[in-house]
Amino acid sequence: QIERKRKEGRMQHSNHYSSLSTMIPLLLLCLASLTAANSNPTDGNTQGKWTVLDDNLKPCIMMYAQIDLRLNYYKEDDSLSESVELPVPADSTTENSSCYEKVQIGDEFEIDSQVLQLNFPENAGWNVRIYFTQDPLLGVDPGDYALYQVTVTSNSSSTDLFKDAPKDHVHTYFSPIDFTDNPAIANDEYTRVGDSIYCPSAQGYFINEDPNYGPDAFITLSQLQMQAYMQGSDAFGKKWTCPADQTDVDIVPVIVSGVLALLVLFTLIAYFVYRSRLPTDILAMTEPEFEEEDEHNHKDHNNINHHDNYGYNEEDHRF
Ligand SMILES: *[C@@H]1O[C@H](CO)[C@@H](O)[C@H](O)[C@H]1NC(C)=O
Ligand SMILES: *[C@@H]1O[C@H](CO)[C@@H](O)[C@H](O)[C@H]1NC(C)=O
Fold first, then answer.
1. Strands 239-241 vs 196-199: parallel, antiparallel or unpaired
2. Residue in 95, 101, 120, 172 to alter for ligand 1 test, most ligand atoms within 8 A of Cβ
3. Is residue 6 over pLDDT 60?
4. Quick one: where's region Disordered (predicted)?
5. Residue 309: its H or E element
6. Which domains does the chain have, with CATH numbers?
Protein backbone atom coordinates (compact mmCIF):
# COMPACT_ATOMS: atom_id res chain seq x y z
CA GLN A 1 0.00 0.00 0.00
CA ILE A 2 2.72 2.43 1.01
CA GLU A 3 4.75 1.71 -2.07
CA ARG A 4 1.68 2.30 -4.18
CA LYS A 5 0.84 5.54 -2.48
CA ARG A 6 4.31 6.87 -3.12
CA LYS A 7 3.99 5.91 -6.71
CA GLU A 8 0.69 7.75 -7.03
CA GLY A 9 2.31 10.77 -5.47
CA ARG A 10 5.11 10.73 -7.96
CA MET A 11 2.71 10.45 -10.86
CA GLN A 12 0.66 13.32 -9.61
CA HIS A 13 3.72 15.45 -9.41
CA SER A 14 4.88 14.69 -12.87
CA ASN A 15 1.42 15.48 -14.21
CA HIS A 16 1.22 18.64 -12.21
CA TYR A 17 4.56 19.83 -13.50
CA SER A 18 3.83 19.02 -17.11
CA SER A 19 0.64 21.13 -16.99
CA LEU A 20 2.61 23.93 -15.34
CA SER A 21 5.29 23.75 -18.00
CA THR A 22 2.68 24.14 -20.74
CA MET A 23 1.03 27.03 -18.90
CA ILE A 24 4.18 29.03 -18.17
CA PRO A 25 5.06 29.81 -21.81
CA LEU A 26 1.44 30.81 -22.30
CA LEU A 27 1.59 33.21 -19.38
CA LEU A 28 4.92 34.60 -20.60
CA LEU A 29 3.33 35.14 -24.00
CA CYS A 30 0.52 37.10 -22.36
CA LEU A 31 3.03 39.21 -20.44
CA ALA A 32 5.08 39.79 -23.59
CA SER A 33 2.07 41.01 -25.54
CA LEU A 34 1.14 43.24 -22.59
CA THR A 35 4.52 44.96 -22.63
CA ALA A 36 4.55 45.13 -26.44
CA ALA A 37 1.18 46.86 -26.37
CA ASN A 38 2.46 49.32 -23.80
CA SER A 39 5.56 50.48 -25.63
CA ASN A 40 4.58 52.61 -28.60
CA PRO A 41 7.34 53.41 -31.02
CA THR A 42 7.92 57.05 -30.09
CA ASP A 43 10.39 59.02 -32.08
CA GLY A 44 11.05 61.76 -29.54
CA ASN A 45 11.64 65.07 -31.28
CA THR A 46 9.25 64.72 -34.22
CA GLN A 47 6.12 64.58 -32.06
CA GLY A 48 4.76 68.06 -31.39
CA LYS A 49 2.69 68.88 -28.31
CA TRP A 50 0.32 71.78 -28.77
CA THR A 51 -2.32 73.32 -26.51
CA VAL A 52 -4.85 76.08 -27.24
CA LEU A 53 -6.10 77.99 -24.17
CA ASP A 54 -9.51 79.65 -23.82
CA ASP A 55 -10.32 82.95 -22.04
CA ASN A 56 -10.13 81.19 -18.65
CA LEU A 57 -6.67 79.86 -19.55
CA LYS A 58 -8.02 76.32 -19.70
CA PRO A 59 -7.18 74.15 -22.73
CA CYS A 60 -9.91 73.79 -25.36
CA ILE A 61 -7.68 71.86 -27.79
CA MET A 62 -4.73 69.63 -27.03
CA MET A 63 -2.88 67.77 -29.75
CA TYR A 64 0.15 65.50 -29.54
CA ALA A 65 1.20 64.31 -32.98
CA GLN A 66 3.82 63.85 -35.59
CA ILE A 67 2.48 65.50 -38.74
CA ASP A 68 3.97 65.01 -42.20
CA LEU A 69 2.90 66.70 -45.42
CA ARG A 70 3.25 65.72 -49.05
CA LEU A 71 2.61 68.62 -51.43
CA ASN A 72 2.66 69.40 -55.13
CA TYR A 73 2.99 72.95 -56.43
CA TYR A 74 2.91 74.77 -59.75
CA LYS A 75 6.23 75.83 -61.21
CA GLU A 76 6.91 79.13 -62.95
CA ASP A 77 6.16 77.49 -66.33
CA ASP A 78 2.74 76.32 -64.99
CA SER A 79 3.77 72.66 -64.96
CA LEU A 80 2.95 70.57 -61.91
CA SER A 81 5.90 69.64 -59.70
CA GLU A 82 6.88 66.28 -58.29
CA SER A 83 5.54 65.92 -54.76
CA VAL A 84 7.74 67.14 -51.93
CA GLU A 85 7.62 65.80 -48.39
CA LEU A 86 8.11 67.87 -45.27
CA PRO A 87 7.30 67.51 -41.60
CA VAL A 88 5.31 70.07 -39.63
CA PRO A 89 8.01 71.26 -37.19
CA ALA A 90 7.40 69.97 -33.65
CA ASP A 91 8.21 73.47 -32.36
CA SER A 92 5.53 75.16 -34.49
CA THR A 93 3.74 77.92 -32.58
CA THR A 94 -0.03 78.19 -32.02
CA GLU A 95 -0.73 81.94 -32.56
CA ASN A 96 -4.09 82.60 -34.22
CA SER A 97 -5.53 79.33 -32.96
CA SER A 98 -9.00 79.77 -31.53
CA CYS A 99 -11.48 78.18 -29.13
CA TYR A 100 -14.40 80.14 -30.71
CA GLU A 101 -14.23 80.74 -34.43
CA LYS A 102 -17.06 81.08 -36.92
CA VAL A 103 -15.81 79.49 -40.11
CA GLN A 104 -17.50 80.68 -43.27
CA ILE A 105 -18.39 77.80 -45.55
CA GLY A 106 -19.80 78.69 -48.95
CA ASP A 107 -22.08 81.72 -48.98
CA GLU A 108 -24.70 80.63 -46.48
CA PHE A 109 -23.11 78.76 -43.64
CA GLU A 110 -21.06 79.66 -40.62
CA ILE A 111 -19.77 76.73 -38.64
CA ASP A 112 -18.88 77.18 -34.96
CA SER A 113 -15.39 75.76 -34.76
CA GLN A 114 -12.27 75.36 -32.68
CA VAL A 115 -9.10 75.76 -34.70
CA LEU A 116 -5.52 74.75 -34.02
CA GLN A 117 -3.13 76.78 -36.19
CA LEU A 118 0.46 75.56 -36.38
CA ASN A 119 2.88 78.23 -37.62
CA PHE A 120 6.23 76.98 -38.92
CA PRO A 121 8.89 78.83 -36.92
CA GLU A 122 11.50 79.00 -39.71
CA ASN A 123 9.25 79.43 -42.76
CA ALA A 124 7.43 82.78 -42.87
CA GLY A 125 3.83 82.38 -44.04
CA TRP A 126 3.67 78.59 -43.61
CA ASN A 127 0.97 77.13 -41.40
CA VAL A 128 -1.38 74.19 -40.95
CA ARG A 129 -4.90 74.78 -39.63
CA ILE A 130 -6.87 71.94 -38.07
CA TYR A 131 -10.62 72.52 -37.64
CA PHE A 132 -12.94 70.84 -35.11
CA THR A 133 -16.69 71.25 -34.72
CA GLN A 134 -19.80 69.93 -32.98
CA ASP A 135 -22.10 71.27 -35.69
CA PRO A 136 -24.82 68.83 -36.85
CA LEU A 137 -24.60 70.42 -40.33
CA LEU A 138 -21.40 68.37 -40.71
CA GLY A 139 -23.09 65.17 -39.53
CA VAL A 140 -21.78 65.38 -35.95
CA ASP A 141 -24.18 63.76 -33.45
CA PRO A 142 -25.15 65.66 -30.28
CA GLY A 143 -22.45 65.27 -27.63
CA ASP A 144 -19.73 64.44 -30.16
CA TYR A 145 -17.01 66.45 -31.86
CA ALA A 146 -15.09 65.83 -35.09
CA LEU A 147 -12.03 67.05 -36.94
CA TYR A 148 -13.64 68.24 -40.18
CA GLN A 149 -10.99 70.06 -42.15
CA VAL A 150 -7.25 70.61 -42.55
CA THR A 151 -5.70 73.40 -44.59
CA VAL A 152 -2.05 74.05 -45.39
CA THR A 153 -0.73 77.47 -46.37
CA SER A 154 2.61 77.55 -48.15
CA ASN A 155 4.92 80.37 -49.21
CA SER A 156 7.24 79.54 -52.10
CA SER A 157 9.79 82.14 -50.98
CA SER A 158 10.39 80.82 -47.48
CA THR A 159 11.29 77.22 -48.39
CA ASP A 160 14.03 75.72 -50.54
CA LEU A 161 11.84 72.68 -51.29
CA PHE A 162 9.73 74.47 -53.94
CA LYS A 163 12.27 74.54 -56.79
CA ASP A 164 11.40 76.61 -59.88
CA ALA A 165 8.30 78.01 -58.18
CA PRO A 166 7.29 81.65 -58.75
CA LYS A 167 8.58 84.02 -56.07
CA ASP A 168 6.40 85.00 -53.10
CA HIS A 169 3.62 82.71 -54.18
CA VAL A 170 1.30 81.94 -51.28
CA HIS A 171 -1.12 79.05 -51.73
CA THR A 172 -3.62 77.48 -49.34
CA TYR A 173 -4.34 73.79 -49.91
CA PHE A 174 -7.87 72.76 -48.91
CA SER A 175 -10.94 70.81 -49.99
CA PRO A 176 -14.29 72.59 -50.09
CA ILE A 177 -16.71 71.17 -47.52
CA ASP A 178 -19.42 68.99 -49.01
CA PHE A 179 -22.30 68.73 -46.54
CA THR A 180 -23.67 65.60 -48.21
CA ASP A 181 -20.36 63.73 -48.20
CA ASN A 182 -18.13 64.19 -45.18
CA PRO A 183 -14.40 63.86 -45.79
CA ALA A 184 -12.76 60.63 -44.62
CA ILE A 185 -10.91 62.48 -41.90
CA ALA A 186 -14.20 63.64 -40.32
CA ASN A 187 -15.45 60.05 -40.18
CA ASP A 188 -12.28 58.80 -38.50
CA GLU A 189 -11.29 61.59 -36.12
CA TYR A 190 -14.53 61.68 -34.23
CA THR A 191 -15.52 60.93 -30.64
CA ARG A 192 -17.54 61.98 -27.57
CA VAL A 193 -16.98 65.35 -25.94
CA GLY A 194 -14.76 64.65 -22.91
CA ASP A 195 -12.86 61.83 -24.63
CA SER A 196 -9.59 62.06 -26.54
CA ILE A 197 -8.81 60.50 -29.91
CA TYR A 198 -5.84 58.14 -29.77
CA CYS A 199 -4.17 56.80 -32.94
CA PRO A 200 -0.53 55.70 -32.55
CA SER A 201 -0.11 54.26 -36.06
CA ALA A 202 0.18 56.49 -39.11
CA GLN A 203 -2.99 57.59 -40.91
CA GLY A 204 -3.01 59.50 -44.17
CA TYR A 205 -5.67 61.76 -45.71
CA PHE A 206 -5.91 63.89 -48.81
CA ILE A 207 -6.27 67.58 -48.03
CA ASN A 208 -6.90 68.11 -51.72
CA GLU A 209 -6.89 65.76 -54.67
CA ASP A 210 -9.12 67.76 -57.01
CA PRO A 211 -7.14 69.67 -59.69
CA ASN A 212 -9.96 72.27 -59.79
CA TYR A 213 -8.82 73.42 -56.36
CA GLY A 214 -5.11 73.45 -57.10
CA PRO A 215 -2.25 71.02 -56.60
CA ASP A 216 -2.53 67.92 -54.37
CA ALA A 217 -1.82 67.87 -50.68
CA PHE A 218 -1.70 64.88 -48.36
CA ILE A 219 -1.31 64.77 -44.59
CA THR A 220 -0.06 61.91 -42.40
CA LEU A 221 -0.80 61.89 -38.68
CA SER A 222 1.11 59.53 -36.42
CA GLN A 223 1.62 59.06 -32.67
CA LEU A 224 -1.59 61.02 -32.41
CA GLN A 225 -3.54 61.92 -29.31
CA MET A 226 -5.85 64.90 -29.51
CA GLN A 227 -8.95 66.40 -27.96
CA ALA A 228 -11.08 69.45 -28.73
CA TYR A 229 -14.07 70.92 -26.91
CA MET A 230 -12.29 70.18 -23.62
CA GLN A 231 -14.31 71.09 -20.57
CA GLY A 232 -12.02 72.68 -18.02
CA SER A 233 -9.58 69.80 -17.66
CA ASP A 234 -5.83 70.24 -18.12
CA ALA A 235 -5.30 66.64 -19.25
CA PHE A 236 -6.58 64.33 -21.97
CA GLY A 237 -9.86 62.53 -21.24
CA LYS A 238 -10.50 58.84 -21.70
CA LYS A 239 -8.82 57.47 -24.83
CA TRP A 240 -10.95 56.53 -27.77
CA THR A 241 -8.67 54.38 -29.95
CA CYS A 242 -8.89 54.66 -33.74
CA PRO A 243 -10.32 51.57 -35.46
CA ALA A 244 -6.97 50.99 -37.20
CA ASP A 245 -5.21 50.69 -33.82
CA GLN A 246 -7.82 48.84 -31.83
CA THR A 247 -6.56 45.36 -32.67
CA ASP A 248 -2.88 46.00 -31.93
CA VAL A 249 -3.17 48.25 -28.97
CA ASP A 250 -6.35 47.45 -27.11
CA ILE A 251 -5.09 45.94 -23.89
CA VAL A 252 -8.40 44.49 -22.73
CA PRO A 253 -8.24 41.21 -24.71
CA VAL A 254 -4.68 40.68 -23.53
CA ILE A 255 -5.72 41.06 -19.90
CA VAL A 256 -8.77 38.86 -20.41
CA SER A 257 -6.70 36.07 -21.97
CA GLY A 258 -4.13 36.40 -19.17
CA VAL A 259 -6.85 36.04 -16.55
CA LEU A 260 -8.34 33.07 -18.41
CA ALA A 261 -4.94 31.38 -18.54
CA LEU A 262 -4.53 31.91 -14.78
CA LEU A 263 -8.01 30.49 -14.16
CA VAL A 264 -7.13 27.41 -16.18
CA LEU A 265 -3.91 27.04 -14.20
CA PHE A 266 -5.68 27.31 -10.85
CA THR A 267 -8.36 24.87 -11.97
CA LEU A 268 -5.66 22.37 -12.91
CA ILE A 269 -3.86 22.82 -9.60
CA ALA A 270 -7.13 22.49 -7.69
CA TYR A 271 -7.91 19.36 -9.65
CA PHE A 272 -4.59 17.74 -8.82
CA VAL A 273 -4.82 18.73 -5.17
CA TYR A 274 -8.31 17.24 -5.08
CA ARG A 275 -7.10 14.12 -6.84
CA SER A 276 -4.20 13.66 -4.40
CA ARG A 277 -6.70 13.56 -1.56
CA LEU A 278 -8.87 10.85 -3.10
CA PRO A 279 -8.49 7.37 -1.58
CA THR A 280 -6.10 5.38 -3.77
CA ASP A 281 -8.70 2.71 -4.51
CA ILE A 282 -10.97 5.20 -6.17
CA LEU A 283 -8.07 6.56 -8.15
CA ALA A 284 -7.17 3.12 -9.40
CA MET A 285 -10.77 2.62 -10.36
CA THR A 286 -11.27 5.89 -12.20
CA GLU A 287 -7.94 6.08 -13.97
CA PRO A 288 -6.50 2.64 -14.56
CA GLU A 289 -4.62 3.88 -17.63
CA PHE A 290 -2.23 5.85 -15.44
CA GLU A 291 -0.89 2.58 -14.15
CA GLU A 292 -0.29 1.35 -17.67
CA GLU A 293 1.47 4.48 -18.82
CA ASP A 294 3.86 4.22 -15.98
CA GLU A 295 4.88 0.67 -16.94
CA HIS A 296 8.40 1.19 -18.23
CA ASN A 297 9.49 3.23 -15.22
CA HIS A 298 9.24 0.53 -12.62
CA LYS A 299 11.13 -2.67 -12.20
CA ASP A 300 8.68 -3.99 -9.70
CA HIS A 301 5.87 -2.81 -11.88
CA ASN A 302 4.56 -6.22 -12.89
CA ASN A 303 3.77 -7.24 -9.37
CA ILE A 304 1.89 -4.09 -8.65
CA ASN A 305 0.09 -4.12 -11.92
CA HIS A 306 -1.11 -7.66 -11.32
CA HIS A 307 -2.33 -6.66 -7.97
CA ASP A 308 -4.10 -3.66 -9.40
CA ASN A 309 -5.80 -5.57 -12.14
CA TYR A 310 -6.91 -8.16 -9.70
CA GLY A 311 -8.40 -5.53 -7.42
CA TYR A 312 -10.03 -3.79 -10.28
CA ASN A 313 -11.70 -6.95 -11.55
CA GLU A 314 -12.89 -7.72 -8.09
CA GLU A 315 -14.55 -4.31 -7.84
CA ASP A 316 -16.03 -4.81 -11.29
CA HIS A 317 -17.71 -8.04 -10.26
CA ARG A 318 -19.43 -6.26 -7.46
CA PHE A 319 -21.33 -3.91 -9.75
C1 LIG B 1 -2.54 86.24 -36.88
O2 LIG B 1 -3.63 87.02 -37.34
C3 LIG B 1 -3.29 88.39 -37.52
C4 LIG B 1 -4.56 89.13 -37.89
O5 LIG B 1 -5.25 88.45 -38.90
C6 LIG B 1 -2.20 88.57 -38.58
O7 LIG B 1 -1.87 89.90 -38.73
C8 LIG B 1 -0.99 87.74 -38.15
O9 LIG B 1 -0.01 87.79 -39.15
C10 LIG B 1 -1.37 86.32 -37.87
N11 LIG B 1 -0.23 85.58 -37.35
C12 LIG B 1 0.13 84.39 -37.84
C13 LIG B 1 1.34 83.77 -37.24
O14 LIG B 1 -0.50 83.84 -38.71
C1 LIG C 1 7.09 84.60 -47.71
O2 LIG C 1 8.48 84.41 -47.43
C3 LIG C 1 9.27 85.57 -47.65
C4 LIG C 1 10.71 85.16 -47.44
O5 LIG C 1 10.92 84.61 -46.16
C6 LIG C 1 8.83 86.68 -46.71
O7 LIG C 1 9.59 87.85 -46.94
C8 LIG C 1 7.36 86.97 -46.94
O9 LIG C 1 6.89 87.93 -46.00
C10 LIG C 1 6.55 85.68 -46.79
N11 LIG C 1 5.17 85.92 -47.12
C12 LIG C 1 4.18 85.76 -46.23
C13 LIG C 1 2.80 86.06 -46.75
O14 LIG C 1 4.37 85.41 -45.08
1. parallel
2. 95
3. no
4. 289-319
5. helix 301-318
6. 2-35+254-318 (no CATH), 48-247 (2.40.160.110)
